[in-house]
Amino acid sequence: MSSKAEILNKIKQNQPASVTALPDLKVLGSETFDVLETYKTVLKNIGGNTVEVSSYDDIISYIKEHYNIEKRIVTTLPELSEIASLDWTNDDPHSLKNVELTIVKAHFGVAENSALWVTDDILGQRVAPFIAQYLAIIVNKENIYPTMHQAYEKIENQDYGFGTFIAGPSKTADIEQSLVLGAHGARGLVVYVMG
Amino acid sequence: MSSKKTIEHSEAAARFNKDVERVNWHDETLWFVREKRDKSAHQIQDWELLRETASKIKNNVLSNIHDYLIEFEANAQKNGIKVHWAADAKEHNEIVHSILVKHDVKQMVKSKSMLTEECHLNEYLAENGVEVIDSDLGEYIVQLRKEPPSHIVLPAIHLKKEDVSETFHEHLGTEKGNFDPQYLTESARQQLRDTFLTRKAALTGVNFAIAETGEFVVCTNEGNADMGAHLADVHIACMGFEKLIPKREHLGVFLRLLARSATGQPITTFSSHFKKPRDGKEIHIVIVDNGRSTQLGREDFRNSLKCIRCGACMNTCPVYRRSGGHSYHNAVAGPIGSILAPNLDMSKNADLPFASTLCGSCTNVCPVKIDIHDQLYKWRQVLVKEGYTPTSKTIAMKTMATVLANPTVFNIAGKSGRFVMKNAPGLVNNKMNKWYDQREMPAVPEESFREWYKKNSREAKGKNNEQ
Question: For residue B362, what are the CA distances in angstroms to A194, B19, B261, B314?
Answer without folding.
Answer: 44, 26, 11, 7
